[in-house]
Amino acid sequence: MATDRIARRQASDARPLVVCGKRGNAEELVAIDATAEQRGLRIAMTLAQARAMHPELVAVEEDAAADAHLLEKIADWCRRYTPLTALDPPDGVLLDIAGCAHLFGGEAALAEDLAARVAGFGFAVRVGVADTIGAAWAAARFSPMASITPGAEREALAPLPLKALRIAEETAADLRRVGFKRIGDLIDMARAPLAARFGEALLRQLDRALGLEREPLQPRLPVAPYVAEQPFPEPITREEDVLAVAERLAHRLSAMLERRGEGMRRIELELFRTDGQVSHIATSMSRPIRDAHAVRALFNERLAALADPLDPGFGFDLARLNVIAAEPCPPQQTALDQSHDDGELDRLVDRLSARLGARRVTQLNAQDSHIPELAAMNVPAQAVGAAHGWPAFRCFRDAVALSPRPLRLLTRPEPIEAIASVPDGPPLRFRWRRALHEVASAEGPERIESAWWSDDAGPARDYFRVEDGAGHRFWIFRAGLYRDTVTPSWFLHGLFA
Amino acid sequence: MEAAHPSLAPARDSDTGPLRCCGCVLVPGALHEVAARSESASAAASGFVLALAAWAAGPRATLWIAEEMALAENGALYGPGLESFGLQPEHLIRVAVAHEREALWAMEEALRCRGVGAVIGEIRGTDRGIGLTASRRLALAAGHDGATAFLLRASPSDAPVAAATRWIVGAAPSAAKAHGPGPPRLAVHLTRNRRGSQGSWVLEWNSVEQRFDLAAADRQPVAEADGDRPHRTAASV
């Protein structure tokens, strides 16, 4: 695969291409292309030896990250066949095609289609189809026939070399040393001595390949509870077409969602480009919806906000709408208090969040904290439920007769130079952002203790509400007391109207 | 701090808004521009615009759309301090935008939503800023469903704007009490009014009644020199 990745980027010539990487202390070949193989080069040969045999060879440093990334891309692309795809590093992808092979004309046709398309992208590919992961893995790599019929695993695997069992190289070497060459030699051996000598792993792999033990496939991406897809004989390229398809797919899902009393909360549009690229566009809602038209409007905002516009290349030939999160949603969307307005407002919040990002459309939640900057928290407006905490804050405020709070709070307190009367008087004058303010009147101090139970708590603060000669009103505090530190520092934290 | 329960606020029909002391009726469903007299008056202007917006929105939501630069400079709205200006924090949605174009887009979207009562756009006023066309769009969107739009500028601007009223707001010394600053006072200068007279006043915010009163010391309008137009009392426009 690594050599294919490189060959795809440059014009091919007749020279052998190898990828080398450090194994132990030596530079070894880790991947070779077909030309190199024909000329007698082998994986795990040292680079020096290979160069001695073929001075014209092209050696490229191995790039494991790029290979892993490419494998993920391929696995993503394979989702066009089934949502259950898993990575099998370094160069394999596992697909669970149970129940979806008939959509492509049967298992053989699916395998053929897959092989033809992947080969078309410039990769050497081998496909194996079988009832178990182990058997399919072996079939793809070692068997002359690509497909193993159900129940025939034993016969099909018997002539294959031991490596086809997905076991460690050392175990295979040990087995060879005592005379086991093929899987068939192991199948009927007494199990206890094998396990004692070569470990449980060997037997487990054998059982898994034969289907005696279940081996689950772990999909790379979560499988969406609701999926609708639309293939296009003629690839689509225009943004309006993409939006129209999204609406159509959403409409198709809405009937299914309605039957189960659920609505879409987070959805993702998967677009498969003809050249194998897969684009994902996700968006979320404040409350579960089933309205296809609203879905279209949200994707419209998402497309407009994409940093690099959606590149259709030669067109998309498959679109799929995944409902990643569905939530119960009453048959008719009735809102809590002002029924009509709430729905409108939620749609506005969704649109703004889709375009600007959910973190930039926020509401304030009151927190149970006496520290000013923690008393109100910014929460994405899509996530706010009914519990925003303000009634509790009002009770607290009235109970302790909280002194006025500023209208605007600076992102973080800004240090100021202040001259104040010792030990705990308000400042007489202070300098903030290079401007000098003479304090005309002041109220305070209001002492706010730090979070003394926490390690990184600062000193206690004494807050003052001060007004300067021109009528500007500020919320400033002294961090620490004069008796604790020689020169406590002063900060400006908020602005009053 | 005085509690601001919605039940304390007078009914909207008989109410003429927080500015009745200066004989102004705030027109809902229109665009109003409020500019801070200087950089340091931004908090005073925020308070003024918030009081008007909270009244105009009533029980509907208020959106505060601000450029991220403005938030970094002047701080973000602080929940516990909002109720003294009549706005319940749960009715507030804050939107941070990267630049003016996004702010205008978000304002227009919000104004067309029926669940929204008031939209405030805080713009770091630059000279090329919002033009006549953009403000006209906002005014039209505001007229659409009765939401009221406010443009909050960091400094006064001469650029033509399709606003129903234009205000320049500065801070004014409060009637200091023995224990500290009194209720907030603002020096307010109405430089443009489509439906009535212009003028300058020093207003004192009454957080119990949720309205502005003329500051006790000067019941007379004050002529201030810093407005961009000569003081006039006659109706114009």
Topology:
The complex is a heterodimer of chains A (497) and B (237).
Chain A: H1 2-9, E1 17-23, E2 26-32, H2 34-38, H3 47-53, E3 58-61, H4 64-78, E4 85-88, E5 92-95, H5 107-120, H6 133-142, H7 153-157, H8 169-177, H9 183-187, H10 191-198, H11 200-210, E6 226-236, H12 239-260, E7 262-273, E8 278-289, H13 292-305, E9 316-328, H14 339-356, E10 361-366, H15 372-375, E11 376-380, H16 390-400, E12 408-420, E13 427-432, E14 435-448, E15 461-468, E16 473-479, E17 489-496
Parallel strand pairs in A: 1-3
Antiparallel strand pairs in A: 1-2, 4-5, 6-9, 7-8, 7-9, 10-11, 12-13, 12-17, 13-14, 14-15, 15-16, 16-17
Helix pairs in contact in A: 6-11, 10-11, 12-13, 13-14
Chain B: E1 31-36, H1 42-57, E2 61-67, H2 68-74, E3 76-77, H3 79-82, E4 92-97, H4 100-111, E5 116-123, H5 132-145, E6 148-153, E7 165-172, E8 185-193, E9 199-206, E10 211-214
Parallel strand pairs in B: 1-6, 1-7, 2-4, 2-5, 5-6
Antiparallel strand pairs in B: 7-8, 8-9, 9-10
Helix pairs in contact in B: 4-5
